[in-house]
Design a protein that fits this description.
Bound molecules: zinc ion
Oligomer: single chain
Biased composition (Low complexity): 374-383
Shape: globular
Region (Disordered): 352-383
CATH class: Alpha Beta
Main location: membrane
Number of domains: 1
CATH superfamily: Glycoside hydrolase/deacetylase
Largest sheet: 4 strands, parallel
Cofactor: Co(2+)
Strand content: 5-15%
Number of strands: 17
CATH architecture: Alpha-Beta Barrel
GO cellular component, one term: plasma membrane
Helix content: 25-40%
Length: 428
């Protein structure tokens, strides 16, 4: 992001202080890199799919102990006040549910399952910039991925793959096929795919950390920068642990293709078919360009993959710029490398020193009236949004793009300037 920004400037709400992007640094050798180093006498990593590689990861996460380095990083962040105290949800009728009296839309919860957006784009992303599609697939690597990968390669199409750690572990050959295409960005979708708000802090550390570890070890040491919560289920606690312990940015979506429900006849909201999913994708790809699209799609079945393939020509024919999630955000793919072929070096990333304290919670914005997509982003490019993990805004529906922040990025206060500054934004 910082690399893009000759025209980038920062606006601090109580004083028109401009800070050049070049001043946005964090110390080299961020400690996140150190969390995943392994003691290896040969100095290398096991070959993907080898016996040593398979043996390096647990078969049962429930009997796994959180590594001391991860726990120390968590404890430091917790003691610094960066990890909110919020009890896990419990599953009620198939939905993650907070205790009585806890409002999922409140600033102290901000559940993405309830469509509460954590304001700013430092810790959580919902939209792509105008005119762009962030191409991403969840749940791989799986057998249907072997239809997707040759197609992406044939079209020189970069995409982000939010991989499930257990699926990597169980499908190393398919995983390697993805790694063999340098245009494919590898990101985190947890180890076992739980509703993350149901998990304890320690379980969250394992779900994220183990998946980071297997990706790190299998890519020559690259540390993922982005993750997506299964079912889009996150809140301020989950997002804070991802960001302040592992420096992971949470990526949700602004359109759900519902491809994962194809053939599911039990959903009261309707039966999804190849035709209905294709119609949804067609509508969005032929629709408004603002904000840009981040569509929930899966490499889960032949149907889900074919829905993408069949609508793929609409990206180009409608003038979309379609790239991986970090590419549309103009960010490095990994915490320590620009992409799959760049050298691994310490990069400028939005890391937060443990001593920093996030901005105080902002009151929830009033719910915007539902509006058609064509009106949602009008005039929004200069809008100001509050920054930090605590600010919230509600989007109007699951298929809404009402945030209107597609061309705006906000940096958390803690990231840059500590607790003294309350609200800052930049344009690019
Ligand atoms: Zn998933």
């Amino acid at each position: 992001m910082a690399r893009a920004s000759s025209a980038l400037f920062l606006l601090v709400t109580f004083g028109a202080v401009a800070v050049s992007a070049g001043n946005w640094h964090h110390p080299r050798g961020h400690p996140v890199h150190d969390l995943f180093k392994r003691q290896n006498s040969t100095g290398g990593y096991p070959v993907v799919g080898s016996a040593a590689w398979t043996a390096a990861y647990p078969s049962n996460i429930n009997t796994t102990t959180v590594p001391a380095a991860w726990m120390t990083a968590y404890t430091n962040a917790k003691n610094a006040g960066l990890i909110p105290d919020l009890a896990p949800t419990t599953m009620v009728n198939g939905n993650p549910t907070y205790a009585a009296g806890i409002d999922p839309m409140s600033a102290t919860v901000c559940s993405s399952t309830d469509q509460c957006r954590i304001n700013g784009t430092t810790t959580q992303i919902w939209d792509a910039p105008d005119g762009m599609v962030g191409v991403a697939f969840d749940d791989g690597p799986l057998p249907p991925s072997t239809i997707l990968y040759p197609f992406l390669k044939q079209n020189n199409q970069p995409a982000t793959h939010f991989f499930i750690g257990e699926n990597i572990w169980q499908n190393p050959t398919i995983f390697q096929e993805c790694l063999d295409d340098p245009l494919q960005d590898i990101a985190v979708h947890t180890w076992t795919h739980p509703y993350m708000t149901t998990q304890t802090d320690e379980q969250l550390l394992l779900e994220l950390g183990l998946t980071i570890q297997i990706i790190h070890d299998s890519t020559g040491g690259r540390v993922p920068k982005f993750w997506r919560p299964p079912y889009g289920d996150s809140d301020v606690r989950v997002v804070a642990i991802a960001y302040y312990v592992f420096n992971l940015i949470t990526v949700i979506w602004n359109q759900d293709s519902n491809d994962w429900q194809i053939g599911d006849t039990t959903d009261a909201t309707g039966v999804y078919t190849d035709a209905s999913v294709t119609a949804n994708l067609t509508n969005w790809l032929t629709g408004p360009k603002s904000p840009g699209l981040i569509i929930l799609e899966h490499e889960l079945s032949n149907d889900t993959v074919n829905c993408f393939i069949n609508t793929y020509p609409l990206h180009a024919s409608n003038g979309w710029i379609s790239k991986s999630i970090p590419d549309v955000l103009n960010q490095p793919w990994y915490l320590n490398s620009q992409n799959n072929t760049s050298p691994m070096v310490a990069l400028d990333v939005a890391a937060t020193p443990p001593s920093a304290v996030p901005a105080p919670p902002a009151p929830p914005s009033p719910s915007p009236a539902p509006a058609p997509p064509s009106t949602t982003a009008a005039g929004s490019s200069g809008a100001q949004v509050s920054a930090g993990v605590s600010g919230v805004a509600k989007s109007s529906s699951n298929n809404s793009t009402a945030n209107g922040a597609g061309s705006i990025a906000a940096i958390s206060t803690a990231t840059l300037l500590g607790a003294a500054l309350c609200s800052l934004v930049f344009w690019y």
